[in-house]
Structure formats: C-alpha cells, structure tokens
Amino acid sequence: xxxxxxxxxxxxxxxxxxxxxxxxxxxxxxxxxxxxxxxxxxxxxxxxxxxxxxxxxxxxxxxxxxxxxxxxxxxxxxxxxxxxxxxxxxxxxxxxxxxxxxxxxxxxxxxxxxxxxxxxxxxxxxxxxxxxxxxxxxxxxxxxxxx
Length: 147
Known about the structure:
By secondary structure, the protein is of the alpha/beta class. Helices cover 48% and strands 20% of the residues.
C-alpha cells in the first residue's frame, strides 16, 4: 500500500517531532504529503470544579494557539529540511483521540504517525494512553513512534 496523505499530531514535545521526522522519511520515500496538526481545546476548563472568568479563558486560548502555531512552525522546518511537502493546521476542538481521528477522516488521511510518551503503571492508569485511544477509534493505519 502506498500512503499519500500522512497525518502527524504535534504537541510541541520531542516525541511528537520524532514522529514527524519518521513521517517525513516515509513521505520522502513514497512521494506523500504530510499534514501536521496541533489541537487546542476550545474550553479546557469545561470539567473544572471552579469558577473562571471569560477573560481567563480568552487568555488561555490565545496562549494555547500561540504555542500550537510555534510547534507547527518547528514542524514546517523539520519537513522542509527533509525535502517534504507539509501543510499545518491548528485544530480547535477537544484534545482527544476522537478529534485526531475525525481530522484524519476529514483530510482523507491514509496513515497516522504519532509519538507515544511510553507511560507505564500508575501514570498510564491515571493519564491513559492517547496513542492507544487513537488506535482504538480508527480504521486508518497508525504508526506509533516511541523515541
């Protein structure tokens, strides 16, 4: 199978950029396009058990979008250095596996490449595994990069 459109979720972490490098390598070999996304929560305090002001939310979103754009700029540089075509997109929605899989579907992605932080034990129990959730919610092939 030839992968023509590769999606890479980027969160600014080293492991997400490592995943992007793997995706760029695959894209270069196959002549594929890479799309890097960074997800920003519309309302990160939705489940919060405290009062927050609209100004607090606006400031959070402003800073979160800025961080996402910075991560995507770094992603562009990595792809350009590898000689690969890349598109980037800030996705404003819940930070969830469902958002990643819905975005992959809407972009007609045929491969998702993502990093896994490799949490174990109690960390995995409490934090879950984002990569595992994506695997469970999509029929699209997923390549997990661990370092």
